[in-house]
Amino acid sequence: MIVETHSAASVCAMVRAGVGVSVVNPLTALDYAASGLVVRRFSIAVPFTVSLIRPLHRPSSALVQAFSGHLQAGYRNWSLLLTLFCRQLRQHKSDSILGMDRRGIKHRQNTALFWHQ
């Protein structure tokens, strides 16, 4: 069975429910790593782009400008988090990350999510 969706969040929810495995971008993998999924590095590079799309012929509102500034400022933090996340993946002997449940107990998860940095 093959299930297709354009939403990385939907893919992660299906993987968490045990439907299968998936390849997602590193931002999504980082977001879902502690929510019941095992993350493993993918062996080939799969580039991805994060974009902010605005109307061409309409001025941006103050809220849109503030949001855009927040995204640009937050890029450095995300970049650092992704770098640290990749190092953790490389250092772990089984090439996976241990999940943590609500009680703070670390354990291996039974589903997998793959990505490449």
Q: What fraction of residues sit in β-strands?
A: 5-15%
Structural domain count: 1
Shape: globular
How widely separated are the two ends?
Answer: 28 Å
Q: Runs with pLDDT <50, length 5+?
A: 93-117
How are helices and strands ordered from N to C? Answer: HHEHEEE
Number of strands: 4
Helices, by number, come to: 3
Proportion of residues in helical segments: 25-40%
How would you explain this protein's 3D organization?
The two termini are about 30 Å apart. The chain has one domain (about 10-45, about 60-115). The protein has three helices and four strands; from the N terminus they run ααβαβββ. A two-stranded parallel sheet has the order 1-4. By secondary structure, it is α+β, with helices and mostly antiparallel strands. A hairpin with a 5-residue loop joins strand 2 (about 100) and strand 3.
